[in-house]
Amino acid sequence: MATDRLLDGRLKIRHLVLITAIADEGTLVRAAESLHITQPVVTRGLREVEDILGVPLFERLPRGVVPTPYGRPFIERARSVLAELRTAGEEVRLLQTGRLGTVTVGTHLAGSNLLLPRAIAGLKAEFPRLTVVVREGTPDMLQQLLLAGDLDFTVGRLSPAVPVRLEQERLHLEPIRLVAREGHPVHDGHGTSLADLIAYPWIFPVAQTALRDELEAVFFHEGLPLPADRVECTSMLTLRNLLVSTDVIAALPMFIAVDDRELRILPTPLSSVRRAVGVTKLKDRAPSAAAAALLGHLREEGALLAALERDYAHSEPRPLG
To answer: Is 146 exposed, middle or buried (0-12, 13-18, 19+ CB in 10 A)?
Structure first.
């Protein structure tokens, strides 16, 4: 059978409804009753589908019908098509009422300070009754939640390698910069080379994260040991509280520091550490209307932040030496 025969206009949605009703009810009579039509209409519709496919879909028994080996997979696919159409109809209804449902997004550091909040604000201005659920976690934990279907997508640093079921979309580049609190002694004109900064306490990402590996590579390239006085932390609340209340130094995505009046960026170059920020999502799952709406706002905000990053890079004074 040529697949084109299913798409030439003869196969109708009513045929799929009829076939699944026959499978559910087990007899043509009960299928007709459930659909509020006559049995001859059911019989004729079944014959039309079987003629299009060129195979029998049901085996006729004395007390009813059962799907044939041809019928079983076709019936399951018909159920899927009908389920997708119902979902599409529900999404249209929700769009009409301004209620798209719920979108669940995971995030970790990069993107959580400006990109995601700005996108959510824009989304809520357009669809006030849409619910956004934000879940924070380490990148590996968020990836597992995404693969399990518990997240619509994640926002944050893009990984150089992801499982084959996932795909990534870059929204902007965000450099990693060293930051310290406003009023930190390091801002008093003392040395700000990496070697000078080792004497201060530091906050480092936990082991086996991409940023930790990249920072270790920077220290190794400079021929320096890791700071002996350090805290290893990925909690943004804990990290920021330590930054503004003690003399620690930390490496953070640039926009986190730029947007925080209690923090200042150090001129110490970390040119080899540059994050691509974007979304990670499942390849084989089309986004819901809610997820697609948030993705649209993320793309808009990502373009604005990309322009802001370029302006900041051009206007930022070069470190001395």
So the answer is: buried
pLDDT in tens, 228-265: 999 998 788 888 899 999 999 998 888 777 778 899 98
| Residue 274 confidence (pLDDT) | 64
Q: Beta-carbon neighbour count of residue 149 at 10 Å? A: 10
Distances 117 to 107, 123, 138, 182, 298 between C-alpha atoms, Å: 11, 10, 19, 24, 9
Q: Strands 58-61 and 202-204, how do they pair?
A: unpaired
Mean pLDDT calculated for residue range 88-109: 78
Q: How many CA atoms lie within 13 A of 150 on its CB side?
A: 11
Structure tokens belonging to residue 1: 């059978």
Residue 79's Cβ-side half-sphere holds a number of Cα atoms within 13 Å equal to 11
Pick from 59, 64, 82, 137: which is nearest to 105 by CA?
Answer: 137
Least confident of 15-19, 50-54, 100-104, 121-125: 100-104
How does pLDDT run across 199-222, given as a tens digit for each residue?
Answer: 899 999 888 777 888 888 888 888
- In angstroms, the CA 218 to CA 267 distance is 15
One DSSP character per residue, 142-181 reads HHHHHHTTS-SEEEEEPPS---TTEEEEEEEEEEEEEEEE
Cα dihedral value 94, 100, 102, 103, nearest 10: 150
* Contact (CB, 8 A) for 31 and 22: yes
Which residues 6+ apart lie within 8 Å of 150 measured at CB?
104
Q: Dihedral angle at the C-alpha atoms of 161, 166, 167, 172, nearest 10 degrees?
A: -70
d(CA 122, CA 298): 9
The tens digit of pLDDT for each residue in 21-80 reads 999 999 999 999 999 999 999 999 999 999 999 999 999 998 889 999 999 999 999 999
Count the neighbouring beta carbons within 10 Å of the beta carbon of residue 291: 22
